Amino acid sequence: MSYETLLVDKADEITTITLNRPRAKNAMNPQMHLDMCAALAEVERDDGCRVLVITGAGDSFCAGMDVKEYFYDTDKSPGERAAARKAAFEWMFGRLRVLPKPTIAAVNGWCFGGAFAWLSVCDFAIASENAKFGLSEVNWGIIPAGGVTKLVSTLLAPRDALYLVMTGRPVSARKAAEMRLVNETVAPEKLRETVLDLAAELKKKNPTVLAYCKEVFRVDQTLSLEEALAFESAKWMELDAVGKKTWHQGVEQFKQERSYRPGLETYRWKS
Ligand code: V55
Fold first, then answer.
1. Residue 56 pLDDT > 90
2. 133-161 pLDDT tens trace
3. Using one digit for the tens of pLDDT, what is the confidence trace for 165-187?
C-alpha cells in the first residue's frame, strides 16, 4: 500500500514507517491519522513484520498535531474535529500502544506536542543528539490533550513532566534522556544503526513471548498488585497453552547441553 503522508519500507522483517510531510515538519493532519490507521492495521496482520520502527522525514520527527489543519480548520465543524480525533486515538492507542510486536521510535529531530502521545506509547525510543523536545501547547493557549498530559505524568517523574507541561520550554535530546523520555541518545549518523541493532536483538526473541511480555506490562500499569499477580499467573498459563512451552527448550539447552546461558542471551526456540 502507498500513502499520501507516509513512507513504508519493509526490509529484514523490520517495517519502518516514516512520517512524510517534511515541509510541515511532519505535523499530523487528519489525512496522516487516516494513513496511520491503515498502515498500522497492515503492520499488525503482516506476519513478515517482526519489529516496527517509526521515524520522520527530513529534519523533524513530528511537530505534533497540525495547528492549522487539525485544530484551526476543524474548529467550526465539530464533526470533522471529532472524526480526526477519533482517527488519531485509534492509531495511537487502539493500534500502536497495543501492537503485539516491539515498536521503536527513532527520534531524528523536532518532537513536539501531540508527538509525545505516540512517542510515549512506543516500547522504545532512541533519539539523535540533535533532536529537540517540547510541549508547546501552553505557549499558544491550549493544554496538552489527547493523552499527552496523562502519558508524560506516568512516563516521567512528576517534576520533569510538570516542567514540560507548564513551561513549554524546548529541551535537548540529552535532557530528554536524563528525564527518561527516551532510552538513549546517539550521534545523528548512528541513529539508524542503533535502532537496527536493537531491532535485530528483538528479532531473536520468541515473538509470541515478546507479545505477552508487552501486553502484561501495558495491562499491569492499570492494575492493583492483587490484580496484577492474578493476571500475570493467568497470562503465563495462557502463554504455555498458546506457545507450547518453548521455555522447556531453553532449560534443556541450559541444563543438559550447557550450550546456553539464560542470563546472557536468548534461547534457541522452535515453535
Ligand atoms: C493534543 C494532542 C491530541 C489532541 C489534542 O496537545 C491536542 C496536543 C494526541 O492528540 O487530540
1. yes
2. 999 999 999 999 999 999 999 999 999 99
3. 999 999 999 999 999 999 999 99
Domain of residue 239 covers 207-255
- Whole-model pTM over 0.90: yes
Check which CATH number belongs to the domain holding 112 and give it.
3.90.226.10
Best of 19, 148, 152 for a ligand 1 pocket test (most atoms within 8 Å of beta carbon): 148
Pocket lining for ligand 1, CB < 6 angstroms? 65, 85, 88, 113-114, 117, 137, 144-148
CA angle 197/57/178 to nearest 5° reads: 55
At a CB cut-off of 8 Å and minimum separation 6, what does 50 contact? 13, 14, 101, 102, 199, 202, 203, 207
162 and 226 in a common domain: no
- So what's the pLDDT on residue 1? 84
